Amino acid sequence: MLLSRISSTSIKADTTSIAAGASVAAIAAYLLLRKARSGKTKADPNDERKRLVVVSGCDRGFGRVLVEKLSQNPRYMVLALTLKEESATMLNKLAPESLVAMKCDVTSDVDIARMEKKAATMVVDPNIVLHTIVNNAGILDPGDFVWFRDISSYKKTMDVNFFGCLRVTKALLPLMINTSMSLPEGARILNLSSIIGKLSWGNMSTYSASKYAVEAWSDSLRMELSTLNICVVKIRPSAIKTDMMREYFDRIDFNLENAPKDVKAMYDAEKVREWKNTNLAEHESRDMTGNQSAGIVVGTLAKFIETDIEKLPASKWVGAGANTVFRLISWLPESSKDKIFMRTPFYVPPIHPKQT
């Protein structure tokens, strides 16, 4: 018995020592990394070059508001990427001296090549330097996995939300690396993730899978670029009042209606309708100027574009409940999260035919 207690104590002591050692090593590595990063920043703090900011998904929502805001700041030159030609035409009329917009479907290699050429042409000017990439383009197609007749929705969502980020970044990163060490505040890549990139519940698997991918890629990229004076930040908005969220509710109706007949039979249509109407009404009643509005996300992005990279976090939860309720839920065991998210207002689960 005594030997057993001693062994147990030894194991605990060893575990504590290992944990303490690992913590010290991690802190030391972090401090060395900060020193290496700051030591390689060579530019004059009075650098007056214009900072080029490239933003995808600027037809509406966060992207549209952000580029309009940045175009009013003489410090920045903005390259806005839109899905539609007419959106680019409208943006080009706003601030011709500081805002350039162009059609760029982030799933099109042809459009990406055109965008890369445009950005390269802009930074030929020695007074312009690539400072920020904001990967904002995204789509949302909700529904349970069994609602979809094939995996085309998953492919499309991943192509825009995840591979779109990769295409834009791959095209621009050489230009960024070329001058990143000359920026006293550092260069940065801001990737729009979501609270759904850290948590997932029913009818959100297409979107959630794409955002989990963005999270994982961002973590790797952040480490890979950290010694090049480039910071990578994940932005995790909660449910913000935007056109995309309104379309979410329309797509719920459409996707369930078009599900296989035997699948539709497993769902209580009245409950789904009640769930949708309740959540839609709550969404429409949100404050357009508070922490449920697009402005809070745009404000965060604008702040992170201005901030020295040494002060930027690896991730930022933004919006109503994001940094409190949802962040806390993300730390819970999976079983606890399942119990929370299997209830209204999050989800209406199916009922097996044999139980009806």
Automatic annotation (TrEMBL):
InterPro entries: NAD(P)-bd_dom_sf (IPR036291), Sc_DH/Rdtase_CS (IPR020904), SDR_fam (IPR002347)
Alphabetized Gene3D superfamilies for the sequence: NAD(P)-binding Rossmann-like Domain
Signal peptide region: none
Keywords: Membrane, Transmembrane, Transmembrane helix
Gene Ontology MF terms: oxidoreductase activity
Taxonomy, superkingdom: Eukaryota
Residue ranges crossing the lipid bilayer per the database entry: 15-33
Entry's Gene Ontology BP terms: steroid metabolic process
Family: Belongs to the short-chain dehydrogenases/reductases (SDR) family.
Designated name of the protein: Uncharacterized protein
Gene source species: Craspedostauros australis
